[in-house]
């Protein structure tokens, strides 16, 4: 953890602020801009359901694999240079996707996008830790809010842009933001090419990532990330169908309720990082997220057609664990290299486990012809946050944990 005294946000850090904002916007808009355009793309070439399904399920896999690689890449090339590479990869994928001649090209372009995003996801908390150790809560609020906004924006404008200028323009538009996001980090990388940057890279301990496996806080954060991601990805995949089948709502109403589920994350991203960073509120937020998730599941199980919107809103409260994890990754480390290692560990394990859940829940429904088992699983997953929260609530950096258990860091 850090005790850095706050200093003016903009003093000497304008490039870092702009870079973090643009990067956060690019990471989510790159992912959310494709699915609304399948009908338009189908006018030029067929997109088989299998390919569309693969594009929809590959992100957690790419996030896990490339998130795992991010720590080693940062150690080898430095934080800013790895950030540039991640944004360059995402930009190349966005352009390739816009120029795709067939479904395979669309898939390969998307894979490039998700690879860049997987690395970028890990680096964002480390960028905040390095450039804003005195304002982790504020900057986490800024970038998590930007990520929430950029999740909503593409679906709103993708189709109108495609209607006016074609689907290729609509897809390629988002490459502009990823390309612009590289500029601040290029300038910072040039500025830091002096000895200070070289010393910082050389000082990184190659054993840092390996130590995460032997400490309780990284595992507790990984479990928390798994809980948040599982509920979010499963609901985005299956909640409309669950609501149509169990609550008897129309498909249109189910879509609106899914938007409500997603919208709940916006106020959480505005409030939660400050509560965690400034006031040290951790366990109460875990209790709220877990309890709301369990109650929402119970409502959908027992009285799904009564105040359905309330059960959906409560279920949408559980992913407030996401900004908690993003904030604590910075607060539970002393140095930015430990932040990279912790972020890589948490996100790669969390996404790696998450990628199995939507698929598994779909198989369970097919086997039982019921959503009861799936909802019970979601309720059980929500409960996992409570023991994880008890571990995380202890205000100890991972370096302190290591020193208490194994001696010098």
From TrEMBL:
Keyword Translocase carried by entry = no
Matching InterPro entries, A to Z? MFS (IPR011701), MFS_Cyanate_Porter (IPR052524), MFS_dom (IPR020846), MFS_trans_sf (IPR036259)
* Residue spans crossing the bilayer: 45-70, 82-100, 106-124, 136-159, 171-188, 219-239, 251-272, 284-303, 309-331, 338-359, 371-393
Q: Name one Pfam family in it.
A: MFS_1
GO terms for MF: transmembrane transporter activity
Its membrane topology is listed as: Multi-pass membrane protein
**Where in the cell?**
Cell membrane
Q: Which GO terms describe its cellular component?
A: plasma membrane
Keywords attached to this entry: Membrane, Transmembrane, Transmembrane helix
The chain positions of domain Major facilitator superfamily (MFS) profile read: 14-397
**Identification of the protein by name:** CP family cyanate transporter-like MFS transporter
